[in-house]
Give the backbone structure.
Amino acid sequence: MPQKILIFNPRSANAKHRIPNSILQVGAAIHGTYDYVFVDGNLESAPWSTIETYFKTGDFKFFCVTVMPGPQLKQAIPFSKKIKEEFPNSITIWGGYFASNQYAASLNSGYVDYIINGPGDNAFPELMNYLIQKKGQLEDIKNLIYKDSNNHTIQTSKEALLEQDSLPALPYDFLNSFYPLQNYLGKTFLGKRTFSYHSSFGCPFTCSFCAVVPIYNARWKGKSAEKIYEDVSYFKKHYNIDAIEFHDNNFFTSKKRVVEFSKLILNDGISWWGEGRIDTINQYSDEDLRLMRKAGCKMIFLGAETGNDEILKQMDKGGKQSGQMIKDFAKRMKEVDIIPEMSFVLGLPADSEAQVMAQIDWDIEFIKEIKTINPDTEIIIYLYSPVPTEGSKLYQKILDAGFSFPQQLEDWISPSWENFDLRKNPLTPWLTPKMVDKIKNFETVLNGYYPTVSDFKIKGYKKSVLKAFSALRYKNGLYHYPYEIKALHKLWKYRQPEIEGFYQE
Ligand code: B12
């Protein structure tokens, strides 16, 4: 009887130098119990043929895929379909943010059999116990979505977040037997060998625009500082890493943990980056922030979203963030020499077209003000792309405005929905092409006048030329048709961190 498990990480742009933590943690959950292999679409030139070769041995039954929105769908969807066509007895299991948030379209496709809804550390081995050893009952497995024999969708209850230090060790050596780990330690503006690490799950807040909320519902659990440092030290010793990207949704939730970690890593010469909230980190003392900087914290990604207090409220941003706080925080970060990387969400729905446009203009001016306060601030601009935060006022507003998600799984790989996932061109009825152009043109001019520091190839004369070309436009608010800046960006292959991350060849 074929029983082997194939765990697949579909390709996402510019992720080839990133440790695939999702599939590593999925593997850890069954390591030593069941036979499995990893296939990493980021490092395979022809991943389908690798997958097919495994299944043709007749030993494999389970095709397990981690799926986030956007480019990963371009392999996840057709490969899952083909597996079912070629090997009709196979079973497909999806997990990850897309699978959890868009479970209905995924299961309705007919070629996705089970969805792991949120963490899979218990759900996945329990599902395998059920499917391979006929142990237990499906409905008792938490964090699972599937269709029963009457074609009814069953969503089991959510499991409390587990103590992260108690999770099994990630099978780095096993991954190394498929893909040498050195290949994953890429060059970024942070260092020559950058390690990607995920140290916590969830987020304590319930912002109405955020994809983390439907899955974690205001819960957060992190590994201890000691545990993180133990893993970092292993990679320092064996792979001489000099930088870390923390991939947590919210690395800075516990100040105690961050301060402890900073003390541990203080003298290791490792630069690091993580994501956090302005209102949380604003409660850290200057002393804490200076310690973090000394310990290697170079840049922090922060969801600023907007400086408009009314809209922050509408976003259920929670906490105490306000426009004034964003400005004060940008200044504080300058004083402690940590680069704030602030993301803004433009193009939210409003009562009239004029109001949507007025808010876009207002946000643009606010962003420019932040740049004046702290020119080092990195600005990331997203177009608002709805996520199914059921029950929030914002989600209701977008439904009322006529928005709906695709019902068919394959529609998600049409070019327009792919752009939606990249938060670049949402199919949101309230945004006119004129508004989208305005935002994109401003972004081009901004990236011309202030090129990102994370693209370390844009420096010296290139930076000066870009700045000189963009100055007149930036200073006078002339954002129309910035073709000359676009041409320079194209010529020098300017890289946008919001789409491609920090890794560079
Ligand atoms: C690393 C990362 C990337 C990497 C690629 C990673 C890769 N796989 O190769 C890069 C930078 C390329 C990337 C890109 C994008 N990303 Co991304 N990314 C992440 C990040 C920071 C970490 C993912 C991770 O490793 N988590 C750690 C693992 C252990 O957790 P996990 O994936 O949740 O896995 C657990 C469970 O979900 C479950 N599970 C997951 N998969 C599977 C599979 C099976 C079979 C099973 C059984 C269980 C299971 O079990 C695991 C263990 O408990 C997450 C945020 C986050 N903290 O998770 C965002 C995130 C997933 N990305 C997101 C997005 C939107 C994108 C983009 C599509 C768009 C963008 N503008 O950012 C782009 C695509 C760009 C492109 N050109 O490809 C969003 C998804 C939001 C949504 N709407 O659903 C997230 C949640 C960020 C956010 N807060 O908004 N991303």
